[in-house]
Fold each of these.
Amino acid sequence: MIDCRGIWKVFGAEDVAASVKRSILSGALDPAQARRDHGCVVSVQDVSFTVYPGEIFCVMGLSGSGKSTLIRHLNRLIDPTAGEIVIDGESICRYNASELRALRATRVGMVFQNMALLPHRSVESNVGLALELRGVSAARRAKTVAQVLDVVGLGGWGGCQVQALSGGMQQRVGLARALAADPGILLMDEPFSALDPLIRRQLQNEFRSLSRDMGKTTVFITHDLDEAIRLGDRIAIMKDGRFVQVGTPAEIVMQPADGFVAEFVQGISRMHLVHAGQIMLPLEAYLSQTGQRLADLNALPQASDVSLLHELIDLAVAQQQPIAIHHAGVIAGVVTPHVLLQTVREGHPA
């Protein structure tokens, strides 16, 4: 759905010599020197990634890492200094103003941290704004708005003024406004970060279910690794305008690419992330080390290769034996108590 290739964003580059810009893009001029000597801020540096249909792709980083700048390239609220952005096989960098308006109105919806709802309008009027601007009839607009409000849990609230709603409900209105246009792609820029923890978790869970049910492809920006792990099919860790690591939540937690990522994940529980297939000793290696026969493993506790770490621990505590792990109906490996202890203590087996 989305394919970004070598995206750079250098603020101030339009005002400096072309040679300076080329030096930045080639790496001959580092960001600190570019800022000090030429007043250029390198916000995004040579970022490439792909987002697949139906995927929730989380971009996570500290403030100033470039993540919000990056997401605004995906509907060209910001134009890249260099690189290409391809959506559904088309390079949107070549779009004219009319084509960009159509992209934002029908194919790519965006939800910001600040919803920018119109206070003088009702909930249903806010949700239907994009449809109104597209010239959709009032009857069709009302039907669509009612359906979307039901989807986000605001059925019956359409006639209320937005200022009468709580923060969490206003976030739902903003999400409903984006969904009303039925875009294939949603861009979410820290939409839940200002909410109380309980409401935030509730909306996270609801959004993940909505995204699955409606088949939306989502790029989700956050500075909270817990949120990224809860929502993301894959996570990109961003630092100083670059992607440091891209992987599944389990890969990020178990196999951090460097000390920066390791520091981020050190407090994350692995209990609901790590599964048996990632830590089991392969069958042949286990039989070779122990001298056991394959038939002997039938007497052990049995689990699937997708069984989570907390399930394996419960089984090991109850049975006090190694666990035979099945894949596609056959025993593929064994998880020993020693491996479980290493994974809990160190994040991965030796």
Amino acid sequence: MLNSTARAKRVWWGALSLCLSLLNAPAFDAHAATFSTVFAFDLHVTSAGVVEGSGTNQGYLFGTTSDTSLTYGGSIYKVPVGGGAPQVIYQLRDIDGYSPQASLLLGTDGYLYGTTRYWPRIGATTGAGTGTIFRIAQDGTGFTTLKVLGGVTRFHETTGSSINDDGIFPDYALIQDATYLYGVTRFGGLYGSGTVFRVRKSDGAFTVLHHFAAITDTSNGTNSSGEGSNPSASLLLSSTGLKLYGVTSGGGANAKTTSSSIEGTGTIFSLNIDGSGFDPLHSFSALDDTATGVNVDGVQPLGALVEVSPGVLIGTASDGGTPTDTTLTGFGTVFRYAVATDQLTTLHNFDSTTGATPTGNLLLANNGLVYGVTQGGSDTSTLGVIYSINSAAIDPATANYMRV
């Protein structure tokens, strides 16, 4: 069972996600802020953030634990926003799937939707299979597996990647419109590079909207099509409700070289909600980490995009960029991408003094600022920062990066 023993280090990243989810209209004042631990995990692991319930469950946060055993696959819990004892509303059984990795989604129908990394137990093995998509009521009743991702897993004869019909590992939070859930798988699909899918809420009808192309040049990890591989964050539904945007951390038209590997630099992509019109909007620039370690726009995005105005997206790249101090290596960027003009503008270059390796989803707050986190690097700590940036910025001079 979960308990309230204070072990703050185990929940540092979870607490950051919670802080971001609770930001509201007033600007965040670092000097006036009060940090409170709502709940500390003891002997349990969480890999995702939380969502607030609705109706009679407004005022409760819902989340998952991802630790598993041979008999259960993690749990779904709720805890009051003001702190207090948590309640496990559902313990995933071996027939339900194992290890939720993504935040839950509160559906427009009042249900909670989520995913597991692994499918139901087979014999004595928990780590088999490709994942599930599930639904559950906020009171813990009615757990339903909408889809077990599947198809016969086989190997791509050229790349050796695991391939199947649906995709493997739906590790990022689902998004929704009134009828469908939309998500991505990190690997698998017909070419081993991941998929975009949708699931109808009413009956679990599942459709793969796009199979990412195979890596055609295995010497540098790029696609001949430049469309990217391995989606690395949740999708974004456009303000029109007709288009999906996303990012990949691999593939694309350019390569990142390190001392130990060569891999693609990643992409920004779009497609229509029916799967048509796939467009690899932007391939991040080449980067040689064994030389300067800098480039124009960063490489390998690891967080979801946000739309700050119609067709204008803000996102982050986890590596690269061009610090003002040319003696420093790039540690990622915050960028603005205008779809209509196909123009990417770097708003901020991380250099380990203002943070390093931005990750996770951005938040567009009511005050117009975009908030995010980095995994590490600052002038006072190696443990990361929370930052904000002006979402209306058109160029770096007006972006007003601020560590909060």
Amino acid sequence: LRQAGSVYGGIFQAASSGSFLGTKKLAVPITVTSTIASRPPVPYPVPWNNWVKLDLKSRNIDATNNFVVEFVIEGDYPATNRVMVTDYLSSSAYHSHFYQSSASKLVYYTDSGNPGNIFLNLIRAYVSLPTGVNEVIELLPSSFNISQNYPNPFNPSTVISYTLPKSGNVEIKIYDSLGKEVRSLINEEKKAGRYNIMWDSRDNYGGRVSSGIYFYTIRSGSFAETKKMVLLK
């Protein structure tokens, strides 16, 4: 949280369709309170001390299915407390480097006033297993996956989400409709987890590409998958 105070929300079973993220109430309401007086100085210290933990084990939440964590944000920013966000496209390392390297990213949104800007809410979810041992693990994917980019169609930027069940080298490339490489987004070692990566419709030389159909491919070990996306201007 960005400053002292409380935010209110709930845990919901994830919706499979429709405009709402959550459906069945699993733990409602919940309250998260911070005693930290203000945002940390720039550049942000690492690790950042603004994380607030809320233990909900006594609520016996059913985490068998996918779930979402939702908070109600009221009032004008920055007058009220907020879930802190990080600017995905910021060139400033204090905004992005430490948190983008984490697999603990959930909801992102775009800024209509600054086209191309994408922000990530700094929220982490953990599950306690009923094994008789107080074992808390962070949720990790069980298989390789690359999701359909969002938004799609897009202009000028879009986000590609992917999951890794184990550590390994990850390579994601963008191709045009003729199969020519347009952009290499990533080619590096990654730990197991969930990740988001943004494409700003620029090629490997920094130029904006034209409208049309493009393909993105992920490769990690023996896993490879390709999906189609559409850039509209």
